[in-house]
UniProtKB/TrEMBL annotation:
This is FAD assembly factor SdhE. Belongs to the SdhE FAD assembly factor family. Keywords: Chaperone. The keyword Chaperone applies. It holds the Pfam family Sdh5. It comes from Lacimonas salitolerans. SUPFAM superfamilies: YgfY-like (SSF109910).
Length: 87
């Protein structure tokens, strides 16, 4: 059974704010509040996959300490841009 979009968005928001480290909670909840509703289904698939990644890796990618894997590069760039615009 396929997940309804509103249920999926709620699940992704919850996963965005219940990470392992507080910094990622703060970054991803801001991003999810600002952008999730507008993402296409393929973009939501990619965001869902990103949330499966380790928080330490995510933080290094978002902070620019380490380049992200190529498949996440556009999403990480969008996260950075969105977070910068909401500061």
């Amino acid at each position: 059974m396929e997940e309804q979009r509103d249920t999926r968005l709620k699940r992704l928001r919850m996963r965005s704010m219940r990470r392992g480290i507080k910094e990622m909670d703060m970054i991803l909840i801001r991003y999810s509040d600002a952008r999730l509703d507008a993402l296409s289904e393929p973009d939501l698939d990619l965001y869902d996959a990103l949330l499966e990644e380790n928080d330490q890796d995510l933080y290094q990618w978002v902070s620019g300490q380490v380049p992200p894997p190529a498949r996440f590069d556009p999403l990480i760039a969008d996260i950075r841009q969105t977070i910068s615009a909401t500061e």
